[in-house]
Specification:
By secondary structure, this protein is of the alpha+beta class. Helices cover 41% and strands 10% of the residues. Helix 6 packs parallel to helix 8 and helix 10 packs parallel to helix 11. The longest helix is centred in the first third of the chain and has 34 residues. Keywords: Ribonucleoprotein, Ribosomal protein.
Length: 419
């Protein structure tokens, strides 16, 4: 054992029986007859090792992974495509400016939209189906930068989730909630009450849509991912100390146009000096023309009848709700003409028209409260999806397979079908 330890020690000099010094070379390892230690080969010199390391390093830096090569090829083709599209857009913009007699240097995107609407008028209901001329960066989707290095190693720790940016946002939300909880615990520990004036106000904004969230994170997500994101953000926004992360929350909020910033028509006056205001309300397919007169007694006339025109009490409550909300019930008169739609839709159209007309009778603060209460919002008609295949189905003909209710005569179609 002692000899083994000495042999392992580098630079040890031993003397044999003939008093001849024996130098033990550091890279030689002796082997005794009862030793289990095997011989190790002689290592390379230090210069050779350095040269080999440099060679390996050069090979690793020069060699690119297949993923990086594929990304570089796609990036080059995308850049060439965008360069071509932007060049064509600039040529078309200058040509369009010359057609409209404008200066190409000051021809803005708003001028382009007006020129396209003038030269190519369209009666299509869907705005996305109408002709347009936008900058290529607005038309074509964004592309994510390389998410891995030359060797194929991903940069992001959540790369293998498939949606690293989305899950990073959820991770940030959870981190903020935990930090706010710890801050709230410290405030309770030191008996410090929350300042009510520093509450986060999100009344003038809404959460971004699914498409807008996808453009922010540059990733495609499913509806369930978006729903979970909204639930997580609502939990963060409802925290008592959410104002401490206001900047993070507002990144995913979209401001909506305030009614107080919109132009509200001024009151009109009759020959007798009575103020009044006209408005048109709508709900689904129902349309209503409403006139609200000031200095009234609370009289409500609908298609020449009183409020009993609506048989359902809930529909009557809809009509008078804007008057109750603005505390003008009994101080103004309402005259409405409504057509089309069902009874519920007509009541909603009258309510919408009354609310729009009352904007001229109240101050801006009340108008903002009306907007937040949803009184100034119109509900459009429901758009049914297009049905492909047979033009008629059994349910459209009045046949119910569960209860076997056959339609009224004639039965020619069903008799042929079930014969």
């Amino acid at each position: 054992m002692i000899i083994r330890q000495l042999l392992r020690s580098p630079g040890v000099v031993l003397q044999g029986p003939s008093k001849t010094p024996l130098s033990v070379i550091p890279w030689i390892q002796g082997k005794c007859w009862n030793s289990n230690i095997a011989e190790t080969p002689r290592p390379e010199s230090s210069e050779a090792a350095v040269a080999a390391g440099q060679l390996d390093a050069g090979k690793s830096t020069a060699k690119l992974s297949k993923a990086m090569k594929a990304y570089i090829e796609r990036a080059k083709s995308h850049d060439a495509f965008m360069f071509e599209q932007i060049s064509e857009y600039e040529i078309g913009r200058r040509h369009l400016a010359n057609m409209m007699g404008e200066d190409p240097e000051t021809f803005t995107q708003e001028d382009i939209d007006n020129a396209i609407a003038y030269l190519l008028p369209s009666g299509l209901f869907e705005p996305k189906a109408r002709p347009l001329m936008k900058h290529p960066t607005e038309v074509f989707p964004k592309r994510k930068a390389a998410e891995f290095d030359e060797s194929g190693r991903p940069f992001h720790t959540l790369f293998y989730t498939g949606r690293p940016a989305y899950y990073q946002v959820l991770h940030d939300i959870t981190t903020h909630v935990q930090n706010l909880d710890r801050f709230a615990d410290r405030m309770v520990r030191y008996s410090i009450s929350k300042d009510k004036e520093r509450t986060l106000n999100l009344g003038s904004s809404i959460w971004v849509s699914k498409e807008q969230l996808e453009s922010i994170i540059v990733e495609s997500i499913q509806d369930r991912h978006y729903d979970f994101f909204i639930k997580s953000m609502n939990r963060l926004a409802d925290h008592p100390y959410s104002y401490r992360v206001e900047e993070f929350i507002l990144k995913f909020r979209k401001s909506i146009s305030s009614s107080s910033q919109q132009e509200i028509p001024k009151l009109l006056f009759t020959t007798e000096g009575v103020p009044y205001m006209n408005a048109s309300g709508s709900r689904k397919t129902a349309k209503a023309d409403v006139t609200v007169y000031g200095r009234g007694t609370g009289k409500i006339t609908i298609n020449g009848q009183d409020i009993l025109y609506f048989k359902n009490p809930q529909e009557r409550e809809q009509v008078v709700f804007p008057l109750q909300f603005t505390e003008m019930l009994g101080t103004v008169d309402v005259d409405a003409e409504v057509k089309e739609g069902g009874s519920s839709g007509q009541a909603g159209a009258v309510r919408h028209g009354i609310a729009l007309a009352l904007r001229s009778f109240v101050d801006k603060e009340m108008v903002e409260k009306m907007r937040l209460a949803g009184l100034l919002t119109s509900i459009p008609p429901r758009r049914f999806p297009q049905r492909f295949g047979a033009k008629e189905t059994l349910t459209e003909l009045g046949f119910c397979g569960r209860c076997a209710n056959y339609p009224d005569p004639p039965f020619s179609f069903l008799s042929q079908l079930f014969s």
